[in-house]
Amino acid sequence: MRLLEPEGQKRLAIAAAGDLAVIGAARRRAQGSSYDAVLTALAPAFQASDLGIVNLEAAVGERAWARPGVSPEFFHEPEIAPALARAGVRVASLANNHLMDLGPRGLARTLEACAAAGIVTVGAGADLAAAVAPARLTIAGRSVVILAAGAGADDTAGPGRPGIAPLDPARLAADVARERPHADVLVASVHWGSMYVDEPPARVLDLARVMEEGGVDLVLGHHPHVTQGYRRSGRTLTLFSLGDALLDGRAGGVSANVAAEVRRDSGVFTVTLAERHGLEIAPLVLDDDGVPEPAAPERAAAQRARLERLSAALASGAVGLSQDSASRLLRYEIESLGQYLRRGRFDQVARLVASLRPRHLPVIWQALTRFGRAA
Fold it and tell me: SS3 for 162?
């Protein structure tokens, strides 16, 4: 399903999907059939592209390795890596907030499993230098450089400390400036934004402008767990959120009900790099286990209409956190707080409260104002 027509000479086709974690019911499905089976709907678009990229939202390892305070559900069995390779995935971004849930052993096992399967990894490593190192590939005679970074203050790498590449605007701008002159194609994979909302927050829009001004060809965003809009600016196409590629939203520390139906919208986005990049989506929908399947025509048409509406607002600059998005955020935090209290997870309650920042206050006020009017 075409969203943007490419203009000018075509260079490469890059297929990308968002957060992928074969956990909960999806893991049980894979164990009962195969990992290839749960990836079936993703494979055609990846296999038809020159390069397939996915955000691997959980480390390879064992349940027993889960760090204190995190859900033991977020782990992958080793079979995930060769199955992804067979499905057409060639690059896995590891810069996300769950990659370090299994600690350094999980990171090391993930790097080993992906390398053995022929999948290039980017965005995490044994120390800061390894975590921020770009992935470099040659595809159809062109040099492709991929940068990755993610928000996750507790999990970022440092000197002598394993972790993910930090989402630092100054560092990312410097990396873009260093790599741009030497890359035929420059891609940035970023784990950013707020969960379950339609519009990217101001900090994401600011960072997107940094990459657009630096001349990145393609920005692949993930973490909100819903698809968001896209924007062409100069030579850059930014996909603000790819949504979930495969993920059982009922698994993990919090089983959120917020935006439950919108979160099922999924797809593989294929970008045709040209003078002005083209974009199409293979529309998918997540079933009750979080496994993707082809979307029915009516659902696919609704997905397209929603993406075009959100993208029109991004293109016009008329973007701000809507009242609906603000209320979604507040409902999610209230749901999380309630579940933590019922389980006696006071450590998580303290972490949630400590995560509040001054920038959150206008959002909370906007949501409370809407609730007040609706009452």
Answer: coil
Helix (H) / strand (E) element for 185: namely strand 185-191
CB atoms within 10 A of CB 130: 15
pTM: 0.88
pLDDT per residue as tens digits for the range 78-96: 999 999 999 999 999 999 9
Q: How far apart are the first and last CA of the chain?
A: 41
CATH fold for the domain made of 2-317: Purple Acid Phosphatase; chain A, domain 2 (3.60.21)
Mean pLDDT of 324-337: 57
Q: Tell which residue, 222, 148, 146, has the closest CA to residue 184.
A: 146
Convert the pLDDT of each residue in 187-205 to its tens digit.
Answer: 999 999 989 999 999 899 9
Q: What does the alpha-carbon distance between residue 97 and residue 99 come to, in Å, rounded to a whole number?
A: 6
Q: What residues have CB less than 8 Å from 223, skipping those under 6 apart? A: 19, 96, 97, 150, 151, 191, 192, 193, 195, 241
Q: How confident is the model at residue 250 (pLDDT cuts 50, 70, 90)?
A: confident
Separation of alpha carbons 249 and 58, rounded Å: 14
How do the domains of the chain map onto residue ranges?
Answer: 2-317, 324-374
The gap from C-alpha 164 to its chain's centroid, in whole angstroms, comes to 14
